[in-house]
Amino acid sequence: MSTTVRTPAAVPRQEWTTVTPPALGTWTPQLSVTVVLPAKDCQAELDLTLAALAEQTYPADLLDVIVVDDASAEPLRLPAVHPERARVLRLAPGAGHGSGRARHAGAEAATGDIVLFLDADIVATRTHVEAHARWHHAVADAVVLGSKMFVEFDDITAADVQAAARFDHFDRLLEGRKQKRHTWFEDFIRDADKLTQYAEDTFIAVVGASVSAPRTLYAESGGFSAFGLRGIVDTEFGYRIFTAGAVIIPEPEARSYHQGARNFTVRGDEIKRERSGLAANHLPIPLFRPSDVGRMWMVPRVHAIVDAGAESAAPEQVQLTVDSILASGFTDLVVTVSPSALLPTWVQDYFAADARVRFAADPVRTGFPSPFSLVVPAGVAVGRDAVETLLRASADEGVGLVRSTVGPSGDDAGPPVELWATRALHRSRRHVAPGGSLDETARRLFGEHWLSGESLGVRRAVVGLTRQGMLIDDSAAPLPGRE
Hints:
This protein is α/β, with parallel strands linked by helices and 483 residues long. It is built from 15 helices and 22 strands. The protein has helices spanning 43-53, 99-109, 128-138, 158-167, 170-173, 183-191, 215-221, 233-243, 263-282, 315-326, 345-351, 386-397, 422-430, 438-445, 453-456; strands at 33-39, 63-70, 86-91, 114-118, 122-124, 142-145, 149-151, 179-181, 210-214, 247-250, 256-259, 302-307, 333-338, 357-359, 372-377, 380-381, 401-404, 417-421, 448-451, 459-460, 463-465, 471-473. β21 (463-465) and β22 form a beta hairpin.
């Protein structure tokens, strides 16, 4: 291995094909990798998985393995054949049993620059880890997906697997055994032009059986959730790390074999039903929930942030701004007012019964995990159709940032209203160059589009009072009983 590896590139949108990674076997790795294996009551399968990992081309001093024993009835152990640096982390029985809890525990214990998650019944080919890691050396924010075939490993020993990995002879070892493709996965990637499209459902391709990420990006995403055995763990993690700004890259050279049939193939319809409630609440795209039907969900599609920190932001203006957002025709949203420490109690009293309004003492910089972060300066009123129009513009223009002037031109009207694709906000913040700006970085990586506030009904709110002291927007239509 000799090729010099350059600093990982920040690529626009999902344009990972603009970067060429080093060819396998021709480069010198620099980043360390921790492989996390969630496992439960599967010693026989684990033995084969570890045998394959013992023969990887990735440098042994940059590779370690954590087997996370998810409260197996009989504690799992390291077999005779295993990677040089491997250990077992045993979890106690408890709520949240499942691969999500185990993977997250392994990731928190990991020390590698890259965390590679493999299932404990995956037999990796000899270049599997290297194929993952080369992308992390080439592309910043990469989340890399390995490939697999399904095949029975009956009567195959750990010694057989070790030899097949060492000499790259898996075709010979598995000759005559029926192999099944990971059909939906391969078809999804093909139909999405190898995941190069700017699409909000790209994360569906994330499968935990072979997926890697920078450890820092994993932490920013919040990691795997402990949903138990509910069939949503991989997809929900994929959604959150994609929303945190990941570039999702399919890597067919990270080849592997799954020992036996896929669980979803056996009971797919049952799994879909079991996961449907969690999916609707945690995956805020139309594929998993009805579109804007006045419901509240665990993760709203839009998280609006009202900036109450400016010196000119009077509490009355804060109230009018929040009221205008809540009156939107688009209802799948929440509003956070920040910072709220200096607001009088009557503002919070006013919104106390509305679960869509939150107050944060410290400044809020993102609407994560919502896919869209809407930033509205205090004192600005948005029209009923403004949020829907901003969302449509983001999709139609294929950009990560849509801005609206306040009023006809925005002259002397203060900061604009901004709708960020949250993934654009997070990735852009990570890549602002010294002396550069977030705006310039966002334009370069995701694109920007402007709309006229006059067309959206975005304007400065004018504080008015009724005879009973009710706050109203004096620039809106007249209300009965006002002075």
